[in-house]
Amino acid sequence: MEWRTDQDDYVLVARDPQATSARVTGVLTEDSNDLTTQGEMAVPTGPLVDAADLVKTAFLNEH
Q1: Per-residue H/E/C for the chain
Q2: Stated pTM of the model
Q3: pLDDT tens per residue across span 14-60
Q4: How many CB atoms lie within 10 A of CB 2?
Q5: Which of 17, 20, 27 minimizes the C-alpha distance to 48?
Q6: Assign residue 51 a region: left if phi > 0, alpha if psi is -120 to 50, beta otherwise?
Q7: How far apart are alpha carbons 30 and 27 in whole angstroms?
Q8: Is residue 13 over pLDDT 90?
């Protein structure tokens, strides 16, 4: 399913609270072009954050 965003921020959710990185794979297709670019990378994890706090901050403007 196609997904678009005008923002530069992304949230990755790791189920392992002890994880130090997450392996990310992706496929990109440019508008009006049938060629795709595929890639994989390891992304370091940040500080542990409660998901409920993320929802409050993003959708309810509670800080």
Answers
A1: CCCCCCCCCCCCCCCCCCCCEEEEEEEEECCCCCCEEEEEEEEECCCCCCHHHHHHHHHCCCC
A2: 0.50
A3: 788 899 998 988 888 887 888 889 999 998 988 888 888 878 887 88
A4: 4
A5: 17
A6: alpha
A7: 10
A8: no
